[in-house]
Specification:
Blueprint lengths: L1 E7 L6 H9 L7 E7 L5 H11 L3 E6 L4 H11 L4 E4 L5 E2 L3 H12 L3 E10 L4 E2 L21 E3 H7 L11 H11 L4 E13 L4 H7 L1 H11 L13
Parallel strand pairs: 1-2, 1-4, 2-3, 6-9
Antiparallel strand pairs: 4-8, 5-9, 6-7, 6-8
Length: 232
């Protein structure tokens, strides 16, 4: 049911923990698709080793095009009904897929968003508000990037926008999905761990906050307020 998409760019130190957190799920994914986005630190070789001994692991190599492109490549390769993006330095809790599948069956939602806990440089726990609507997103992002999304809905909107070069691609995608009628169900249980580091893509996104928000406002004029403190 769920295809886990792992974009990869130079994360050899963290990649094994990420992949193994998916392999060790109480409910197995339909597949794990690793999109090697031009890694040059040995990450791609590590990914290929998992193909040899783990069922359902696929590696797709492409020249470096950025996170949005890597996730879109994964969407096109995926055969599951739902896509769960997982960055290569983050970790799923063992029951994450089982719980998400249960909520899919119970609600038939288009987007299932789990609560999260940070680790590394910070240890914040973020419990999501119940089933946010589009108005809630106008003052702050309400769901993490690691949310299961129905593949047909992703295809309707063309996936992640390549315009969001420096980040906030998940915020942009959420607006796109919600304005086209997708519905969200949140899970008030921590199901994935978000790694915080001294320097990451998230810091780059924050540095380009005004530029990225200008693009969101351009694409979605109804969003009149600046989004504050977006989730990772």
């Amino acid at each position: 049911m769920i295809s886990v998409i792992i974009p990869l760019f130079n994360q050899k130190e963290y990649l094994p923990d990420c992949i193994e957190s998916v392999l060790n799920q109480t409910a197995q994914p339909k597949e794990i698709i690793i999109i090697d986005d031009g890694s040059n630190d040995g990450s791609s070789e590590i990914a290929e080793k998992y193909v040899k001994f783990a069922n359902g692991v696929k590696v797709v190599h492409q020249v470096n095009k950025g996170l949005s492109s890597a996730r879109n490549t994964g969407i096109m390769w995926a055969t599951g009904d739902f896509i769960l993006p997982l960055d290569s330095d983050d970790i799923l809790m063992p029951n994450a897929l089982e719980k998400i599948e249960q909520v899919i069956e119970e609600t038939n939602a288009d987007i299932i968003a789990p609560s999260m806990k940070c680790f590394g440089k910070s240890n914040d726990t973020i419990i999501l508000m119940p089933n946010p609507k589009i108005e809630d997103f106008k003052t702050g992002n309400r769901i993490p990037y690691c949310s299961a999304i129905r593949k047909t809905k992703l295809l309707e909107v063309g996936g992640y926008s390549p315009k969001m070069t420096f980040g906030y691609e998940d915020c942009h995608l959420t607006f796109n999905l919600l304005y086209r009628g997708a519905n969200i169900v949140t899970i008030p249980e921590v199901l994935f761990l978000y790694r915080t580091k001294e320097k990451s893509m998230w810091h780059d996104a924050v540095e380009h906050h005004e530029e990225l928000m200008a693009q969101i406002h351009k694409d979605f004029p109804e969003v009149t307020e600046i989004i504050s403190n977006p989730l990772p």
